[in-house]
Write a structure and sequence with these properties.
This protein is of the alpha+beta class. It has a single domain, classed as Nucleoside Triphosphate Pyrophosphohydrolase (Alpha-Beta Complex). It has one helix and five strands. The strands form two sheets. It has a three-stranded antiparallel β-sheet with strand order 2-1-5, with no helix packed on it. Strands 3-4 form a two-stranded antiparallel sheet. Strand 1 and strand 2 form a beta hairpin. The two termini are 15 Å apart. This is Nudix hydrolase domain-containing protein.
Length: 89
């Protein structure tokens, strides 16, 4: 999860699908791009709308297992973000 400085608001990796990209492929790509993590297994947990009355798109939430990490290469817009492991209970 990314934490925005001064806010401590966790944000999951993800930014949407590219044209003609399926949600599972987008989840795998975003996990690598935003956290330098590769998963050997990715399972769809649920699809939801953040604010159902106004949302036009669905959010797909996945569980990733068999993780391996690499060195994270940040771009300028991510310079203030901190990556942190968070236990889900």
């Amino acid at each position: 999860m990314d934490l925005l400085p001064g806010y401590e608001v966790p944000m999951r990796p993800g930014d949407g699908c590219e044209p003609d990209e399926d949600p599972l492929a987008a989840a795998r790509r975003e996990l690598v791009e935003e956290a330098s993590i590769r998963a050997s297994e990715v399972e769809l947990l649920t699809m939801m709308r953040q604010m159902p009355a106004s949302a036009r798109t669905r959010e797909h939430l996945y569980l990733a297992r068999g993780l391996s990490t690499g060195e994270h290469q940040r771009d300028a817009s991510e310079a203030d973000m901190e990556l942190r492991w968070v236990a889900l209970k």
